[in-house]
Please model this.
Amino acid sequence: METDELLEALDSKLARLSQTGEIEPERIRPVTIMTRERRQLVDLEKELQSVLDTIKYDERIPPLLTRLADIHLREANYSRAIILYEMTLGLDSDQVEAWISMGLGYYMVGEPKDAISCFGSALAIEPENTTALVYLAMAQLEKGELEDCNRNLDAALHINSNMPRALLGKGKYFRAKGELELAVTWLKRTFHTDSVFLPALMELGSIYQILKQYDNAIDVLTKALSIDSEQPYALSTIGDIYFEKNDMETAIYYYDKAVSIKFDDPELWIKKGDVHRNRKSYQQASHAYQKAINADPEHVESWVRNGSVMLLMNDEKTALEYLNTALALAPNNADVAHQRGLIYYSLERYEEALADFDLAFSVDPANPMHLYYRALMLEILDRNLEAKRTWVVAQKLFEEIGDASKAAECKARIKRIS
Model:
C-alpha cells in the first residue's frame, strides 16, 4: 500500500473507531470481542509500523499516532499506548493531551513517578490545565505526597471551582487522611455540578461501605450501574458488601460479573478466589488465584494466595513453589517470608524456616510473631540460649502490643528452657 493510501486508510478507520471526549480512567477496560473493523486497524497499524522510519516526519504522523495510542489506552493496552505516546511526543512534544494521556497510562499501571513527569510536561506547556493538575494530584496521592496533592487540587479548583474531578480528588485526599466524613462532604459537592458523575458515585459508595452504611452504599452504587452497567469496580464493591454481610452467593454473583468485564485485574480475581476459599471450595479458589497470576504474573499477592490455598489442599510442595516465586518477586516482603517459613516448618526443614523468620523480622521488627516462630525453630534445633534470648524479646514485644496470652506463653517457655 502506498504511503498516502495507508495514511488515508488509517485516518478513515480511526474516525470510525475513535471515541470522542476525555479518556476517563473509570471507563478504561480491555476488549472482550475484537470486531472486524478493529482487526483491520491492527493490520493497518502493523503496516504503519513497518514503514514508520521512512515517513515519520510527515506532519500527518503525530496526530495519527496519538489517536492510535488513545484507542489502546481506552482498551487497557497500556504498554502499547505508552510506546505510541512516546513516539508521537518525540515527533511533536507540544501535544498537551498526549502528555496527559501518557501520564494516565503510567498512573493506571502503578507508576506514579513517571505519571508525575508526564503531567509536569503538560503543565510546562499549559500551566493552568486543570485536567493535568488533578491527575498530577492523584499521582502524588498514590505516592503518599498528601501536601503536594492538596496544593494542586486547590490550584485546579481556584481555576474552576466546580470541576467534578477536582472535587472528587478532594474527597480522595480526605479519605487518604482518614477523614471520611469530610470526604463524603466533598464527594456530595460534585453532584451539585454533575448529579451523575460516575467516579464520585463509586467513591462515595466505597466510603459508605467502609462506614458499614451498606444500604446507602448499595443505593449509590446501583445508581452508578444505571449510568454504566458494566462498571467493574462498582460491581466488585457491591460484591465486597455482600461478602462482609456473609452472603457469599450474592458476592460471587457480583465478582463474576466484575471479572467478566475487567479480566485483566488480578485484585478482582483474588476477591472471587477469596469467596471460594471462604466456602472451602479450594479448587475453585485456586483456579481464580491462577487467573489473577495470568492477569499479572508479577502480582505478588496472587502467588501468595495460591500458595496458601495449596496448603489447605495439603499440597505443600506446590505451595512452596508459589511462595518461592512470590519471594523472588518481592525479596523483602516480610509476610511472604513468614508464610514460606511456616511451610518449611511443616516440612521439618527447620534451618530454612529459621532463615525466613529471620528475614521477616529484619524487615518487620515490630511484629513479634516473626520472633515467636524464630524461637520455636531455635528450640527444635537445640540452640536453647539463642531461643531463650529470642523468647525474652518476643515477650516484651507482645506486652507492648497488649497481647497478654502470647506474652504469658513466651514467659512459660523461658522458664522451661531455664
